[in-house]
Design brief:
It is built from 3 helices and no strands. The protein has one domain: Methane Monooxygenase Hydroxylase, Chain G, domain 1, CATH 1.20.58.
Length: 107
């Protein structure tokens, strides 16, 4: 059984659920394992075989965390554009810059 591979698959499953907390927790676990492996003697063949896949899984989960942060930022931007923050500009509501109804605040 490949433990780090299973942790990577768990991260992917949680990422599809948009559970960024769980994905970040798996990343922390993988980074901790990688740091502990780096302390050991790298000349041992059995460690060398495991370091590559562990590093690759860690890199993949880092990309997942990054992609989730982009998706979260994108969804926040969409809600702002749809009037979620600052009111509906088309209906004369205020924007985040304090301009109401498209007129200058000084007029």
């Amino acid at each position: 059984m490949d433990f780090t591979g299973e942790v990577g698959r768990l991260a992917v499953a949680k990422a599809t659920e948009r559970d960024d907390t769980a994905v970040r927790a798996t990343l922390v676990l993988l980074q901790d394992l990688l740091a502990r492996f780096n302390v050991l003697d790298p000349r041992q063949a059995c460690l060398v075989k495991k370091m590559g896949p562990l590093q690759a899984t860690c890199d993949k989960v880092e990309r997942l965390v990054y992609e989730l942060s982009l998706a979260k930022g994108s969804s926040l931007m969409q809600s702002r554009l749809q009037g979620g923050v600052g009111g509906d500009v088309a209906a004369g509501g205020s924007t985040s810059m304090g301009v109401a109804g498209g007129e200058d605040a000084g007029s």
